[in-house]
Amino acid sequence: MIKFGPSGNSDIFYKQGYKSPLDMPAWLRNMGLDAYEYSCARGVRIKADTAEQLGAAAKENGICVSVHAPYYINLASEDSEVVKKSFKYITDTSSAAELMGASRVVIHPGSLGKLTRDKALANIRSNLYKVLEIINKNGINVSLCPETLGKKNQMGTLEEILELCLLDSSLIPTIDFAHLHALGSGALKNRSNYERVFERIFTVLGEERGRLIHMHYSRVEYTEKGGEKKHWSYEDTDYGPEFEPLAECLIKYKIHGTIICESRGTMAEDAIKIKKIYEGLAKEHLYPLEKLC
Fold first, then answer.
1. C-alpha distances in angstroms, 24 versus 53, 69, 268?
2. What is the pLDDT of residues 4-26, one digit of tens each?
3. At a CB cut-off of 8 Å and minimum separation 6, what does 91 contact?
4. Residue 292 carries which DSSP code?
5. What is the pLDDT of residues 267-282, one digit of tens each?
6. CB contact at 8 A, 115 and 123
7. Which pLDDT tens digit goes with each residue over 63-93?
8. Rounded-to-integer distance, Cα 82 and Cα 73, Å
9. What phi and psi values does residue 120 have, to the nearest 5 degrees?
10. Reduced to 3 states, what is the DSSP secondary structure of residue 230?
11. What span, in angstroms and rounded, lies between the C-alpha atoms of 125 and 128?
12. H/E segment holding residue 66
């Protein structure tokens, strides 16, 4: 069964008087959610004891935790200091994730700069292999999840992410459907568009591994030239991509990974909405949810 949850904390979480991330697991459980992506996007600042307490609270409340590493990672860079810092961002996030009981760490591969895409991808491949060696040497038990990105100056097309994931069987792709939609100037318009994504994942990684993907979803605004501009809430229907055709594909391909909602300010509430859509379609198609596991 797919797990649903938010990236970070919704505005309503704070409006209801909550402040600490330690309150999130019980809050999410009470909402009917079962996943949470803790954000280290601006740096790994969580203390070890807090990470352990968050992990304990998540386990108690049946919440599956993932962690998003800092945005500053650039494994494509040819500047040794940038690469060194990127390694530290990834290893620090991975250590914090393990303390939280999280098994997945989402990473941005890097930016293009003045490099060709082929050269940038070669750099990322080499550096990703090195950081995997460091993580394994240190006995950190997490899976790195390279993410599809939504801007043309970033590395992270679907093909690039799938190629990177061939480096090691522990790597899990993070498929951000908003980013794919934005990068393709509205590429995900219907079920067949989504089907092409899943077929490609299965072709490259195989069905068994492909069913375990990590996913991000939200509505997104993109620029005239193509590329992510701004995330929106699920109620902002001027923007795509639509979730229903995605939900149909999740059922068709028997996906059982995690979907993290990245709506603007309403990520938890919208995670509930898309979860209900998914569950409703599963019943409508006579797919018992337990058989989608």
1. 11, 19, 10
2. 999 999 999 999 999 999 999 99
3. 131, 134, 135, 138, 140
4. G
5. 999 999 999 999 999 9
6. yes
7. 999 999 999 999 999 999 999 999 999 999 9
8. 8
9. -60, -40
10. strand
11. 5
12. strand 64-68
- How many other C-beta atoms can be found within 10 angstroms of the C-beta atom of residue 44? 20
Rounded CA-CA distance 217/239 in Å is 12
Q: In Å, how far from its chain's centre is CA 204? A: 19
Query: Residue 5 is encoded by which pair of tokens?
Result: 């949850």
Say what the pTM is.
Answer: 0.96
Domains of the chain: 3-285 (3.20.20.150)
HEC sequence for 93-118: HHHHHHHHCCCEEEECCEECCCCCHH
Q: Which two tokens stand for residue 1?
A: 């069964």
The residues, any chain, with a CB within 8 Å of residue 291's CB and separated by 6 or more, are none
Cβ pair 57, 280 in contact under 8 A: no
